[in-house]
Automatic annotation (TrEMBL):
<feature type="transmembrane region" description="Helical">
    <location>
        <begin position="42"/>
        <end position="60"/>
    </location>
</feature>
<feature type="transmembrane region" description="Helical">
    <location>
        <begin position="105"/>
        <end position="124"/>
    </location>
</feature>
<feature type="transmembrane region" description="Helical">
    <location>
        <begin position="66"/>
        <end position="84"/>
    </location>
</feature>
<protein>
    <submittedName>
        <fullName>GEL complex subunit OPTI</fullName>
    </submittedName>
</protein>
<dbReference type="GO" id="GO:0005739">
    <property type="term" value="C:mitochondrion"/>
</dbReference>
<keyword id="KW-1133">Transmembrane helix</keyword>
<keyword id="KW-0472">Membrane</keyword>
<dbReference type="GO" id="GO:0097250">
    <property type="term" value="P:mitochondrial respirasome assembly"/>
</dbReference>
<dbReference type="GO" id="GO:0005789">
    <property type="term" value="C:endoplasmic reticulum membrane"/>
</dbReference>
<dbReference type="Pfam" id="PF07019">
    <property type="entry name" value="EMC6"/>
</dbReference>
<keyword id="KW-0812">Transmembrane</keyword>
<comment type="similarity">
    <text>Belongs to the EMC6 family.</text>
</comment>
<keyword id="KW-0256">Endoplasmic reticulum</keyword>
<dbReference type="InterPro" id="IPR010742">
    <property type="entry name" value="RCAF1"/>
</dbReference>
<dbReference type="InterPro" id="IPR029008">
    <property type="entry name" value="EMC6-like"/>
</dbReference>
Amino acid sequence: MTSTLKRKEESHLQNGGVKQPTWSKAFNSTAVWEEKDEFLDVIYWLRQIIAIILGVIWGVAPLKGFLGIAIFCIINAGVLYVYFSSFQQIDEEVYGGTWELTKEGFMTSFALFLVVWIIFYTALHFD
């Protein structure tokens, strides 16, 4: 807990007391998240971006069926897990544990992935 307070004070001094924008904190490994919801929003939107990118790739490369869904789930969960555990190095227990962070926004990103995948696949690979 002391290291978190120390990081918070250092971050505050580096910024000259100015609040750092959310997206710049998202790509800064030394960022301090004052608000719990702010970090959860970043997790949510990064997951949506991953869903769009993978949906386009899966639609262009004619991937089909369970294999495509399984690979999406593994990549989506894996990338976000590495992001919050290794890159941001946050204390998962503050946010309800690893499972809560891993499932944050997963179903909406899965739905978005399916829509993008179906649209691109249908547009490019029709009979």
